[in-house]
Amino acid sequence: MKINWADRILLVVYTFLIAIVSLALMAIAVGIIPFAGVVEYINGIQYNWGFAVAVFLVSLAFLLASLRLLFLRQRRTNFAGTLIKNTELGMIRVSISTLDTLVQKAVRGFSEVKDVKSLVVAEPDGIRIRLSMQLMPDVNIPEISQAIQKKVKEYVEATAGILVKEVYVYVDNLAALQRSRVE
Fold first, then answer.
1. Residues 174, 136: Cα–Cα separation, whole Å
2. Angle between helices 5-30 and 49-71 (to 10 degrees)
3. Interval 104-141: pLDDT, tens
4. HEC string for the chain
5. Which of 105, 153, 145 is nearest to 128 (CA)?
6. CA-CA distances (angstroms) from residue 153 to 46, 129, 178?
7. At residue 174, what are phi and psi to the nearest 5 degrees?
8. Tens-digit pLDDT profile for residues 88-103
9. What is the pTM of this model?
């Protein structure tokens, strides 16, 4: 579960305050702080309208923080690195690494590609794929790029059943021709 920064701060402050109250109660229980002194201090507090409002606001803040932290875990969360697809029979989870493997397989089917690095980015309504490729020399880059985009999109959608919103192709380099050595 991923907790946002505001909830983290709330959790730290809330836990710190509860720890202080717990330590004070333990000190009273074992006699470090005399119970009679605590009772005398509480009896000495002037109860007026301002004090009542302050106690009410502090109590309300603790109640709201408690409820917020209690129901924080109730949010529906996705497993890290998975993409969800709902069907009429239930939920299907496909890991991002599985989708990346499908992308790699689709691209490696092209003999014009010497090397490829891929990144699959999950979004709520599909995925975006980023490819960084090294192509063989003397290749028509626009043609092969479009063919790869089309094949990757069709293959991933047909195999995993997940919408591919974009296939971004970056041609990083052309492979150098390896000349055979004559000895």
1. 6
2. 120
3. 999 998 989 989 999 998 887 788 999 999 998 888 99
4. CCCCHHHHHHHHHHHHHHHHHHHHHHHHHHCCCCHHHHHHHHHHCCCCHHHHHHHHHHHHHHHHHHHHHHHHHHCCCCCCCEEEEEECCEEEEEEHHHHHHHHHHHHHCCCCEEEEEEEEEEECCEEEEEEEEEECCCCCHHHHHHHHHHHHHHHHHHHHCCCEEEEEEEEEEECCCCCCCCC
5. 153
6. 73, 9, 32
7. -105, 140
8. 888 778 888 899 999 9
9. 0.53
- Degrees (nearest 5) of the Cα angle 147, 153, 156? 130
Place of tokens 């909830």: 7
Tokens of 130: 């980023």
> In degrees rounded to 5, what are phi and psi of residue 162?
-115, 135
